[in-house]
Design brief:
Layout (H helix, E strand, L loop, with lengths): L20 H11 L4 H15 L21 H14 L32 H9 L17 E2 L4 E2 L45 H13 L9 H10 L24 H11 L3 H6 L1 H7 L24 H16 L7 H6 L5 H7 L1 H26 L6 H10 L1 H12 L3 H16 L1
Antiparallel strand pairs: 1-2
Helix pairs in contact: 1-2, 6-9, 10-13, 12-13, 14-15, 15-16
The structure holds zinc ion (2 copies).
One zinc ion (ZN) binds next to loops.
């Protein structure tokens, strides 16, 4: 079938190596012998004449939009591209599957600088394929190539510059023209996957193989609800991940990644089938392997096993102690650890501490009030105040009754009002 534009196929179709939409458009523009901006103008002009009544207009400004996410403009752009090139499933070249869950917040994942795996670029040229940029390389959560176990590069090995966005010189540097594949001795091996790497790659692979996938907006929340019904995990707050509002709010991809990591269940399983995912979840919350303690995303909750034990001991000891008063901040500050971590790891103990402190405080303030009952506003006091000033009198009374200054002031103001009335 003849198409209006060249029927260029996206690279890596149906796999986790799928091309990014930006890269595809850039190659398409190059194929037509025009710049990317010119290509967008051409496409917009053609589409706005060829489209049907019901289809949206394509603005020329779409050339400036980041094409990793989704939205009205990108949807129309994809429609136009599919019609223009006769290709199908181009939405798989973006993160469009998250559109119901994440609003338009894919910005938390997208990179503004080009990254690449030099070995992948070398393989592409070796196999006679056009050098292209993978969708995965555009995401900040991916820091290395899983196939070659190499850290992704962002700077030219010859001149050290980043690559220009709208210029297609791959696999050569857009700054100096030297090859980005050269200087193999500078390649940096990376054996450790970043948190969320496999989760994200699995999601990309699934969406690439099933273009048009749109994850259900309540999948993660549903999963969380099922998990929470398990009595053994009582006391963990869902607010950690999902804001509780009358209307469900949308979340961020980075939050989803952290959630799945902390739940120890692949993100793809959670998004595809929350019920099944909640059944395969085996580790109860808070029981992470100590070797992976950094897997606890939030810095404030990151405690080693020994720190955690010390925290538990301190809290228990305090609860058993006599009438001493220490606030939770003081207790945690001495360890040191944050109150957030204490709340996270020992919700019940912290609750007990807070309640005990509250009742201690109540007792103390009752005692203060009792002793201040003896204070009366007589002529002697008024004379003294005239001589030395009220603030001195207040300070003396505070010492005399062993009561904080603010309480003395309050009591005096009540008494003064009483005499005036
Ligand atoms: Zn690679
Ligand atoms: Zn260079």
């Amino acid at each position: 079938m003849a198409t209006a534009f060249f029927p260029l196929t996206p690279q890596g179709f149906g796999t986790e190596d799928i091309e990014a939409l930006d890269s595809y458009i850039l190659r398409l523009a190059t194929e037509h012998g025009v710049t990317e901006y010119q290509f967008h103008r051409l496409l917009a002009w053609w589409w706005n004449h060829a489209k049907s009544e019901s289809q949206g207009e394509l603005g020329r400004h779409v050339g400036y939009v980041s094409k990793i996410g989704y939205g009205k403009d990108i949807d129309t752009l994809i429609q136009a591209l599919e019609k223009a090139t006769g290709q199908e499933g181009l939405s798989g070249l973006t993160l469009s599957a998250f559109r119901d869950i994440c609003g338009t917040h894919v910005g938390c994942q997208s990179r503004h600088v080009h990254y690449w795996c030099p070995a992948c670029l070398r393989d592409q040229t070796k196999e006679g394929l056009p050098a292209y940029e993978k969708l995965a390389w555009r995401l900040s959560v991916i820091s290395r190539c899983r196939t070659h176990k190499l850290a992704l590069e962002s700077m030219c090995p010859s001149c050290g510059r980043n690559q220009l966005r709208h210029v297609d010189t791959w696999p050569d540097c857009s700054g100096c023209g030297e090859s980005l594949i050269s200087k193999e001795h500078l390649w940096r091996p990376s054996d450790h996957p970043s948190d969320g790497e496999s989760d994200m790659l699995d999601v990309i692979a699934h969406c690439a193989a099933n273009p048009g996938t749109i994850f259900h907006r309540d999948a993660a929340r549903q999963f969380w609800k099922l998990i929470r019904e398990d009595k053994s995990r009582k006391g963990q707050a869902g607010n950690e991940y999902f804001h509780q509002r009358p209307e469900p709010t949308r979340t961020l991809i980075s939050v989803l990644l952290r959630f799945s990591r902390e739940m120890n269940v692949p993100l793809l399983s959670i998004l595809l089938d929350p019920t099944q995912a909640s059944a395969i979840r085996t580790l109860p919350m808070g029981e992470w392997d100590p070797c992976h303690k950094t897997h606890l995303g939030r810095g404030r909750c990151r405690l080693s096993v020994s720190q955690r034990k010390a925290l538990g001991r301190t809290l228990k000891l305090y609860l058993r102690s006599g009438k001493t008063y220490k606030s939770l901040v003081q207790l945690c500050g001495a360890l040191p650890c944050s109150t957030g971590a204490a709340r996270y790891w020992y919700p019940d103990l912290v609750q007990a501490v807070v309640e005990r402190n509250r009742s201690l405080k109540r007792g103390i303030s009752k005692n203060h009030e009792k002793s201040l009952k003896r204070l009366s506003l007589d002529a002697e006091l008024a004379l003294k105040a005239e001589a030395v000033g009220w603030h001195k009198v207040e300070a003396e009374l505070s010492e005399q009754f062993a009561v904080p200054l603010h309480r003395v002031r309050k009591r005096l103001s009540i008494l003064k009002r009483g005499t005036r009335g």
